[in-house]
Design brief:
The chain has helices spanning 74-77, 100-111, 119-129, 135-149, 167-173, 178-191, 247-250, 306-314, 317-326, 396-399, 462-476; strands spanning 17-26, 32-37, 44-47, 53-62, 80-85, 87-90, 93-96, 151-152, 175-176, 195-201, 220-227, 230-234, 254-258, 265-267, 277-286, 292-301, 332-342, 349-359, 363-365, 368-371, 392-394, 401-410, 415-417, 423-428, 431-440, 443-452, 455-457, 480-484. The chain is of the alpha+beta class. Strands 17-18-16-15-22-26-25-24 form an 8-stranded mixed beta sheet. A 5-stranded antiparallel beta sheet has the order 12-11-10-13-14. It is flat.
């Protein structure tokens, strides 16, 4: 057998386990590997009447856990056993998974010689890159060329789950699964003189592997090109993703390079808060009723642009409009116009423009208008638990970002400022919050900056996190009062 299933009886903390057993039975002297994690009940070894060796793990009466707003990744807390063959043979291909180098070598051997392209395709590639000045430019040209002429189709039959469709078939048919499209891209890059390798990876939002146990823990294949002593990562199944952007699907994790003499685990690019930005500028014209007309322009970068990029390419205009309305944190609004534009820079970005009429944009009470400096800001949710005894995790896709907000209100004529202008500065190990307001020439200018640092934190920091959230929520609830000038 090439694969052994993992045993993870508590894959969901909300599920109780009454009885779960994992048994591996092998002939006497047969070698395989296993590793136990996170306090799993230790193996019980025995031998049956025929001399077969039995390895048994058992779990009984494991209660469910309470819901956790900031749970660690299951790989970091759930009892688990990983098992893998030492030596195996599948359809005349022999291999072993004793090390990452061995796994890489097996995958390379399995796919060796399947990267030959038709002569016409080779000629097309040479013409494509003949004027390129650098290897990086060649990679970009080939990647866009590949995206324009291929589409993803998932095909796995027998050993085809690991062995790729040959590059000639992909060139002629224009489709393939992840390994086939990656193999085709690698063949094209090599034709242009680019050093490159396939890479096995576990895809999915914050998916993880156990790097200390070499085994088949991957579900996807991507391409890695070496240019100017640096790497460029390519997601070959997408027709719209920019080169060298891994995002939440394959970013910030281990990948296994597939090389002739055996590859190694390397890290794909992760994304820092400064790269995951939302920079928003809002112009608000207030009426005396509290209603307003709002013009908003927002720049999204890094993983923050992924949702907008997805609806830009995968939704109709009507569906885009409904989605945008559902993601605006305002009460009653009428979206007059909207526009989504993909950036042209080397790093992915999407610019969103909205024109809206909003009822009760400010609150009218008698002769006063109550104005919110943090217009459009989504309040941070408070967790139910106020203390904890275990580490907690602020997911990188939700809590690793920079928000820059600027709101300019045009206050109706005949109103004067009645309250002081709020200003906040909050610093924490979890990030920074800053806001300030200025009123001049009937214009109220409000700025807000939030930088959050996601990741794993010790339980002793939990009360500080709750305190940080409370301070931000209080600052975001601040209001500025204007009153009719009767003079």
């Amino acid at each position: 057998m090439m694969f052994y299933p993992r045993w993870m009886p508590v894959s969901n903390s909300r599920t109780a386990v009454e009885h779960s057993v994992y048994t591996i039975k092998v002939p006497s002297g047969f070698k395989f590997r296993y590793k136990e994690y996170n306090g799993v009940p230790p193996v019980v070894k025995s031998t049956d009447a025929a001399g077969a060796e039995i390895h048994l793990w058992k779990m009984d009466d494991k209660p469910a856990s309470k819901p956790d707003s900031y749970a660690l990744h299951p790989f970091d807390f759930s009892p688990m056993v990983l098992a893998s063959p030492s030596d195996f043979e599948i359809q005349d291909y022999k291999g072993n998974f004793n090390s990452w180098e061995d796994l890489s070598k097996f995958y390379y051997t399995l796919n060796a010689g399947r990267d030959v392209l038709p002569p016409a395709t080779n000629a097309e590639i040479k013409a494509l890159v003949k004027d390129a000045k650098t290897d990086r430019e060649k990679v970009l040209l080939i990647y866009k060329w590949m995206q324009a002429r291929s589409r993803y189709v998932s095909i796995q039959l027998g050993i085809g789950g690991w062995q790729t469709i040959d590059a000639t078939t992909v060139a002629n048919k224009g489709y393939g699964d992840c390994k086939a499209l990656t193999n085709f891209t690698l063949a094209a890059l090599r034709q242009a003189g680019i050093t490159c390798y396939g890479a096995l990876i576990k895809a999915g939002d914050e998916a993880k592997i156990k790097p200390d146990f070499p085994s088949s823990q991957f579900n996807h294949v991507i391409a890695c090109a070496i240019v100017a002593k640096d790497t460029m990562w390519l997601e070959c199944t997408s027709q719209t993703t920019q080169a060298n952007f891994m995002g939440t699907f394959t970013g910030g994790r281990y990948a296994l390079l597939v090389m002739p003499e055996g590859g190694k685990l390397v890290a794909t690019p992760g994304y820092k808060p400064s790269q995951n930005m939302r920079k928003r500028n809002s112009q608000v014209k207030l009426e005396t009723t509290g209603d307003g007309q709002i013009e908003v322009q927002t720049l999204y970068t890094g993983v923050r642009q992924e949702s907008r990029n997805s609806i830009l390419y995968n939704s109709t205009k009507e569906a885009q409009k409904k989605w945008l309305i559902s993601h605006v944190n305002l009460p009653s609004l009428e979206l007059q116009r909207f526009e989504l534009t993909e950036g042209k820079g080397t790093d992915p970005s999407v610019t969103e423009k909205l024109s809206m009429n909003v009822r009760s944009c400010a609150t009218k009470t008698g002769t006063r208008l109550f104005v919110k400096p943090g217009l459009l800001s989504v309040p941070f949710e408070m967790p139910a638990a106020t203390e904890r005894t275990t580490d907690f995790y602020l997911s990188l896709s939700d809590y690793d970002f920079t928000d820059l907000d600027s709101v300019s209100y045009t206050i109706p004529q005949g109103y004067k400022l009645e309250t002081t202008l709020p200003s906040f500065q909050i610093n924490s190990v979890f990030g920074v919050y800053e806001s300030k307001t200025i009123f001049k020439d009937n214009q109220l200018l409000c700025s807000r900056k939030v930088i959050l640092n996601g990741g794993r934190y010790p339980s002793k920091d939990y009360t500080a996190w709750i305190d940080f959230l409370k301070k931000i929520r209080k600052a975001d609830r601040a209001q500025i009062v204007f009153v009719e000038n009767k003079e």
